[in-house]
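Obj.: predict assembly geometry.
Materials: sequence records (below).
Method: joint structure prediction, all chains together.
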Amino acid sequence: MSKPVLKYSTQKYIEKIDTEIRNILGDEIPILSKLKDYTVESGGKRVRSILVCLLAELYGELEDDIFTLAAVIEIIHAASLLHDDVLDNSLTRRGKPSGKEIFGSKEVILGGDYMLACAIRKLNDYENPALMDVFTRVIRDLSISELVQMEYANNSDITLDIYYKIIYGKTASLFQTACEAVAIYTQKSKVEIEAIGNFGKNLGLLFQIRDDYLDYFNNTLLNKSAFQDFENGYYTYPVLIVREKGIPEVSKRIENLFNLKHSDRTEKNVHKDILKILNENNAQDLTRERINELFSLISEQLNSFPQSDYKNKIERQIENLMNF
Ligand code: GRG
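Observations (raw structure tokens):
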């Protein structure tokens, strides 16, 4: 068996990314120092930033600056989650008290803004407008998608097209940026930047639809309580694909459940009702089908890279995502 030639283990990547997060985030006042510790220690998987490192290895250009880019990605992700817990009034995150619960809503909103500013300031050091462009795009996308998601919460006018816009902005855009940032930094051609960005976008769509699937069908893998999307009034893929069948009676039953008061939607028997409709209408298989389609697309896109240990590692990480 050939010896692996990977430069670093995943654990080593995480250590390097975390050191950079600590360097980028300031600690002018005690709460910012605590927020910095929370960001590093709160148990995120670092999926996006590890992807940055693996892609840089794949391109043969893993330099210290790459860990900085990876940390910037992770900080934007962390700031968005702090804000998200306020918007969704979430008491927990990653199976522990959320930032909002620990620090307070106003504190994490302002703390998240501060973190974004630290990240952008760091990006400035690269003096690279193309890099700045993809990062500011993703911050816009995150904000817009949350506004659209809010507009369509408990709103049966939502369509699959609108859902795709939402999940592009809330998840896929950051995966896209992670990939594009590496290609821009390593001075790839416009065509290559676009191609790797597309790969990241599809990976992000897969990641979010999988998240939406697990919210109904296997939440133990997500380390969060089940039915959160339903309780928040968010129509996600499993629900929308059932509605696509165009059976008026089924759509009406779904709408009636989403129209219940929030406190009723948290009831166990109501969870059972929505799950019953989804199961009667094959939502699990239909959602898995879509995830498998995206997986095939991503695998095809990865195939355009020459064979290497780094490519194998990216493939393995994506295959791990498919074990659910
Ligand atoms: C502050 C830029 C900014 C935006 C505010 C609230 C908001 C607008 C955006 C939030 C978007 C959001 C909640 C996206 C969720 C994406 C997602 C799938 C999160 C879970 O990702 P994991 O599993 O998380 O990678 P860990 O816990 O591993 O870090």
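Conclusions so far: Residues 27 and 34 are 8 Å apart (CA to CA).
To do: check interface contacts against the pulldown list.
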